[in-house]
Amino acid sequence: MIIVMKQNAPLTAVENLETELNNRGFKVSRSQGESKVVLGLIGDTFKLDERDFLGNEWVEKVMRVQEPYKRASRSFHPQNSIIDVSGVKVGGKKLVVMAGPCSIETPEQIHTVAQAVKNSGASLLRGGAFKPRTSPYSFQGLREKGLDMLIEAAKDVQLPVVTELMSADKIGTFLEKKVDLIQIGARNMQNFDLLRAVGRLNVPVLLKRGLSATIDEWLMSAEYIMSEGNQNVILCERGIRTFEKATRNTLDLSAVTVVKRRSHLPVIVDPSHATGHRWMVEDMAMAAIAAGADGIMCEVHNDPEHAWCDGAESITPETFDHLMGRLRQLAPIVGREL
Predict the structure, then answer these.
(1) Which pLDDT tens digit goes with each residue over 89-133?
(2) Which of 268, 155, 286 minimizes the C-alpha distance to 205?
(3) Nearest-angstrom CA–CA distance, 74 and 267
(4) Of 20, 35, 242, 297, whose CB has the highest number of CB atoms within 10 Å?
(5) Could you write out the three-class secondary structure of the chain?
(6) Domain ranges of the chain
């Protein structure tokens, strides 16, 4: 249930209503718009009668939220959320570009790529230290050693870091290393214990869509995180598994538009994992921004032909620089900045 306060309702009236609802056993999520406040109620609201609140002179209307996801719903939070990742604002007018190698291989490799993407205008440095792979015999990442390399390279070029967390037992390490944005990968999108664990942190979370997940399932996974108190969630469309074999996955750009209508959370797109082909990354990145995405995440490698994993979908620093130039031209056309 949501309660919409009248325009310019005094703070005391909002706080008094919040106190009343808390005393009745409900959790209240306040959303502040330009001139109105929306209160979202979490709990067994079926026993409430909407008419009980209409007697309050500062209440404009009361509505029941039909979606199973409450905190992630735009009904609860009509304004777009802007997530602060160590000073980088995701979801605002400025587009965000996350770039770096699929996996960290050597100090030289990650430093070279970090400097290149920084020079081209990337907002965050991405890189995999812990790698979930389909085969147990594939390269699984350098783990803590790779994470140290990533953090050091990011500090040198002064970029925040985004990297994947695979299990809750590594949360302490991520906090100790001060990872700026914790990525939950596609294969862990419905690892509910892990979602609850990152939901108890005060660190932004990038939640990738599962390989076969519906949009509702994706948003419900975001709800798991937000229900534990962490409201700083960024969604990432990275392609879904279909019958098509020409690409690694099928990039669902329609999901960006659907999610933007249903949720207030920022959405970025990963054209690298979605397509599996470096020659497609630029065009699909442009299409993602045209579709309304708040940014992109792409794989950049200084020598993709000899990458330890996912070389086929990794673009070179030169191609990345060209892409950034094209995005700068596109951004103002769609009302954004880069």
Answers:
(1) 999 999 999 999 999 999 999 999 999 999 999 999 999 998 776
(2) 268
(3) 13
(4) 297
(5) CEEEECCCCCHHHHHHHHHHHHHCCCEEEEEECCCCEEEEEECCHHHCCCHHHHCCCCEEEEECCCCCCCCCECCCCCCCCCEEECCEEECCCECEEEEECCCCCCHHHHHHHHHHHHHHCCCEEECCCCCCCCCCCCCCCCCHHHHHHHHHHHHHHCCCEEEECCCHHHHHHHHHHCCCEEEECHHHCCCHHHHHHHHCCCCCEEEECCCCCCHHHHHHHHHHHHHCCCCCEEEEECCECCCCCCCCCECCCHHHHHHHHHECCCEEECHHHHHCCHHHHHHHHHHHHHCCCCEEEEEECCCHHHCCCCHHHCECHHHHHHHHHHHHHHHHHHCCEC
(6) 2-63, 83-334
CATH class held by domain 2-63: alpha beta
The one-letter code for the residue type at 138 is: S
**Same CATH topology for 2-63 and 83-334?**
no
The whole-number average pLDDT for the span 56-74 is 85
Domain 83-334 class in CATH: alpha beta
- The pTM assigned to this predicted structure is 0.87
Dist. CA 34–CA 121, nearest whole Å: 31
Count other Cβ atoms within 10 Å, centred on residue 21.
21
Token readout for 140 is 């699984």
Going across the sheet that includes 27-32, the strands are 27-32, 37-42, 2-5, 59-63
Distance CA 137, CA 119 (A): 36
Q: What confidence tens digit (pLDDT) does each residue in 26-46 have?
A: 888 888 776 688 888 877 777
Instruction: Write out the two tokens for 66.
Output: 């039909």
End-to-end CA distance of the chain: 37
Cα Rg of the chain, angstroms: 21
Q: Locate 25 and state its tokens.
A: 């056993």
